[in-house]
Structure formats: C-alpha cells, structure tokens
Amino acid sequence: MDVQRLDAPDPGEFVAAAKRAFRDGAVLTVEARCEVEYEGRTSGYLDAGDRLLVAKPDGTFLVHQPTGHKPVNWMPGGGTVEARESEGDAVLLARRTNPSERVETRLLDVYGVTRFDAEDGATYEESGTEAEMHEYIEANPGELEAGLRIVEHERETKYGFVDFYAVDSDGTPVVVEVKRIQATLNHVDQLRRYVELYEETNEDVRGMLVAPSASERVHRTLRDNDLEFVELAEFGLDAKGATEAKLTDF
C-alpha cells in the first residue's frame, strides 16, 4: 500500500501524476473546482463548483458535491478514465462504449490530488439485509402483487439502479424500489425520480415501494404521487433504531 499526495499542482503536473496513477492501476482522488459535461442517453451540464473526484482502476468515475452521499455525476466500471490538457486546463474524461457515454470534467483549479495504490481482495458478505429481500422477491413476485412478473433485476438508469423492473398482469411496467428499513420520504423521492424517468418516453408506468413498514405521512405522500406501497413486515429489523425514520417522515 502506497499513498502519494500532491498539493495545488498546475495542469501539467496534474496530468502527469494522473497518467502515472492510471497506468499503474491506482485509485486517484482529486479535490478541485470543476465543471462537468455528460453526453450519452441524455445530456447534462454541471456548472463550476468545489467537488471531490474519484477515479478507480476499473474505470469507475465519481463526482461528489460537498453534501449528499450519492455522486452527482458518475460512470460505472468497464470503461476508461484518461487525463489530458485542453485550453490551459486539466481534463478528466471518463467514457465507455456500451452504451456510448462520456463524463468530461474540466478542472479549473486543482487544490490537491492523492494517489492510492490500494490492495483489497476481501469479499463483502451480507446477512439479514436487503439482499435477502431481493432474493425473496425475485423468487416470489406474486407476494407483491398477483400476476407480477420480474423482467430485470437492478436495471441501470442515469439516476442509479432500479431494484426491479417488472410488468403487471395487464402488461403495464412496474418500477419496484426495495428498502430493508422503514420507508422514508427520501425513498419516495427516489422512486418518483425513477418513475418520471420512464414517463419521459411517454411510457405508462407504475411505481411500487417495498419495505417492512412506513409512516402515515409516507403513505400519504405515495398516494399523492400515484405511487404504491407494499409491506413485507417479516423483513423488519430487530436492531434498535434500524427501522426508525426521521421526524420529518411523520
């Protein structure tokens, strides 16, 4: 394991350090003021701001803003990340071919860059978690609704992975989002984004949130947004606080 830190490099120094890291299969993290462009199934632009960038040797690329646990832009593994200079700035370009997508990050001011020659051969093992719910639902879709048929497990979208893409007995698509803990308003928002994504193509689609429980406010918000809730109470957690929602969810 080796860690190398470079503070406030100029564009040439940054590009040289990044190329060495990519060549050697190291993890690269960058603190920078940057702007981001996405081209692929849609297009998008993120104006300049201070962000944390992560490039992994499998081609994964993440752009994190100062708040929130999810990246605002990202590219999954299987592609490539490269560094270059363009018009006096350093640029990180993440892209893949299937589907054809690219995330281009222009670094307007690099505060620091860290190269991490990481080694990790461990396998994460889950027990009593959401994975069990996924296995149960995949084997027993009728427990959610009679006639429901699973089409795809963990379908990728620009907002992340839909847990299940299914169709009901009438052939209507159903987006299923599964939560191991008590459903919250954040979970409702996540499901709503997925449903709205499919509605962009004028596709008639239902949204279904599956969890061990939900507060009345969450139920009400789901109804107000024409979304549905299915309770799988047998998957409720025993650990104190594990199923507790925020006060704003009530």
Short description:
With 250 residues, the protein is an alpha+beta fold. 19% of the residues lie in helices and 42% in strands.
Outline type = elongated
Total DSSP helices = 4
Low-pLDDT windows of residues: 238-250
Radius of gyration: 21 Å
Q: How would you spell out the order of helices and strands?
A: EHEEEEEEEHEEEHEHE
Briefly note the structural class of the backbone: alpha+beta
The main sheet comes to: 8 strands, antiparallel
Mean pLDDT: 90
Structure description:
The chain is α+β, with helices and mostly antiparallel strands and 250 residues long. The chain is built from 4 helices and 13 strands. The strands form 2 sheets. Strands 1, 2, 3, 4, 5, 6, 7 and 8 form an 8-stranded antiparallel sheet that branches. A 5-stranded mixed sheet has the order 9-10-11-12-13, with helices on both faces. Residues 238-250 have low confidence and may be disordered.
Features:
single chain, 250 residues, alpha+beta, 8-stranded antiparallel β-sheet, 5-stranded mixed β-sheet, 19% helix, elongated, disordered C terminus
List the helices and strands and how they pair.
Blueprint (H helix, E strand, L loop, with lengths): L1 E6 L3 H14 L2 E13 L3 E13 L5 E4 L8 E3 L4 E7 L2 E9 L2 E18 L12 H10 L9 E9 L2 E8 L5 E6 L6 H15 L6 E6 L4 H9 L3 E4 L19
Parallel strand pairs: 11-12, 12-13
Antiparallel strand pairs: 1-8, 2-3, 2-8, 3-4, 4-5, 6-7, 7-8, 9-10, 10-11
